[in-house]
Amino acid sequence: MTNQHKLVQAFSTSLGVEPAMVTDDLTYDTIPQWDSTAHMILIAELEDEFKVMLDTDDIIDMSSVAKAKQILTKYDVDFDA
């Protein structure tokens, strides 16, 4: 499973949305499912899936799928493959 697929699955599971909805354009304020509680579930899912511990600033800054990729790249997660 690619890191892109893992990311899509994490968002889909955490937010309770179809995987097709998980695109780089998906942002915190565009769907009602992505509220503060779902955000923390998403963070836990991403940390578990990618075996990282996100710092507080990264958790706060993670406002879109594209931003999640950018942040995870700092933790040596590669999305180019």
Tell me the radius of gyration.
Answer: 11 Å
- Sheet with the most strands? none
Number of strands: 0
User: What percent of residues adopt helix (DSSP H or I)?
Assistant: 40-55%
CATH architecture: Orthogonal Bundle
What is the residue-mean pLDDT, rounded to a whole number? 96
The named CATH superfamily: ACP-like
Using brief descriptors, characterize the structure shown.
single chain; 81 residues; mainly alpha; Non-ribosomal Peptide Synthetase Peptidyl Carrier Protein, Chain A; 4 helices
Structure overview:
- By secondary structure, this protein is an all-alpha fold.
- The protein has one domain: ACP-like (Non-ribosomal Peptide Synthetase Peptidyl Carrier Protein, Chain A, Orthogonal Bundle), CATH 1.10.1200.10.
- The protein has four helices and no strands.
- The protein starts with a helix and ends in an 8-residue tail after the last helix.
Q: Layout of helices and strands, plus pairs?
A:
Layout (H helix, E strand, L loop, with lengths): L2 H13 L20 H15 L5 H6 L3 H9 L8
Helix pairs in contact: 1-2
